[in-house]
Design brief:
Elements (H helix, E strand, L loop, with lengths): L9 H33 L20 H4 L1 E7 L4 E7 L5 H6 L10 H8 L3 H6 L1
Antiparallel strand pairs: 1-2
Length: 124
């Protein structure tokens, strides 16, 4: 009699894949993090020392640029990459604008610059 034995090693494979995706995700969020910071450093300033609406905020102090961090969290069923500005109340109004000023986005443009490359970067 012929007999076939199947051994499922999916859990081992899944763990190896998660580790690789987490490593690649770290690269993705690090690129976005660095791009956000560099765009603030490179942005042109108006006569008042501030950036022009539509451009990333100009660096006037190191508070905003120093608040930008990225990280990766691996859960049981997901790899989550985060990047953003933390503990600075004016980050969201700068990104989205407010009734007092036009937007000076820095996160979304950094993401958009590599958006098309992300699937390939995660699958390498």
């Amino acid at each position: 009699m012929n007999e076939f034995t199947f051994i499922w090693k999916g859990d081992e494979c899944f763990e190896a894949i998660k580790d690789k995706v987490a490593f690649n995700m770290s690269t993705v969020v690090s690129i976005i993090d660095a791009d956000m910071k560099q765009s603030m450093i490179d942005t042109p300033r108006g006569p008042n020392g501030r950036s022009y609406p539509g451009n990333p905020p100009a660096v006037q102090t190191t508070v905003l640029i120093g608040s930008i961090h990225s990280g990766v969290e691996v859960t049981e069923d997901a790899v989550i990459g985060t990047v953003g500005s933390y503990d600075v109340g004016y980050a969201v109004p700068l990104e989205l604008g407010s009734i007092h000023m036009e937007p000076r986005p820095f996160l979304v443009p950094a993401f958009e610059r590599i958006r098309e490359d992300i699937p390939e970067m995660l699958s390498e």
